[in-house]
Every structure is written in C-alpha cells, then in structure tokens.
Amino acid sequence: MFGILNIVANRKKYAENFKIGKFFSQETGKTIHGHTPNNLEKRFLVWSGKYKSIEEVPSFVSYDVMERSRNKVRIRVANIMIALTVLGCCLMVYSGKQAAKSGDSVVKQNLDWHKKYNEESKKA
C-alpha cells in the first residue's frame, strides 16, 4: 500500500519538476535543473558533437551540458576568427608587396589626392 502511494507521490513530484525545468537524475538521485534549448542552442549542441542531429536534441538538457556545448562553440568561433585574421593579414601583406612592385604607394596616392582637391577648389 505504501509502495503504491510512494510511486504516485513521486510521479506527481516528477511532473511538477518537469514543468518548471527540472528533472530527476536516476544515477545520483538528485534533482537536476534543466534548460530548454532554443533553435540556435540546438544547433550548438549538434555542432559541438553532443547529438547527431537537431531532431535528436531533447526538450530539456542540463545546464552543464548546455554550458559545455556553448564553450566548445565559443572556442571554435574564436579559433576560426583567429585563422581568418591571420589570413587577412597575409593577404594585406601580399597586396602591399604587389602595390610596391607596381610603384604605387600611400604617399603617391596622398599627393595625387591633394593635387586633385586643390585643382577642384581653384575651379570653384
């Protein structure tokens, strides 16, 4: 009798916790606060390798799992930005060397601009 009442009480408690974003861990016996991921966070979970596809992502995930996936994505984005910055710097160095070979320089562009500006101001 008490076993049945205990099961019913636990189901009710589990349902209440599930509604407010908590779920019960069978392994530790503790309540784990859950997080409802939005579409972008679901993509983070897939891109970080936690799940294979967006359809496999559950409606609630623990905060720890979500933070780990955000950190992985944050690190990947930072690494991509570092690589793009280095690539951009290399392209600018190459472009500058090509401009120097053709005789073009910033000083020459500045003098041409001033000459053109002075001619326009004398005409007006």
UniProtKB/TrEMBL annotation:
The keyword Membrane applies. It is a single-pass membrane protein. It comes from the Eukaryota. Belongs to the UPF0389 family. This is UPF0389 protein CG9231. Keywords: Membrane, Transmembrane, Transmembrane helix. It is found in: Membrane. InterPro entries: DUF1075. One of its GO terms (cellular component) is membrane. The chain crosses the membrane at residues 77-95. Pfam families: DUF1075.
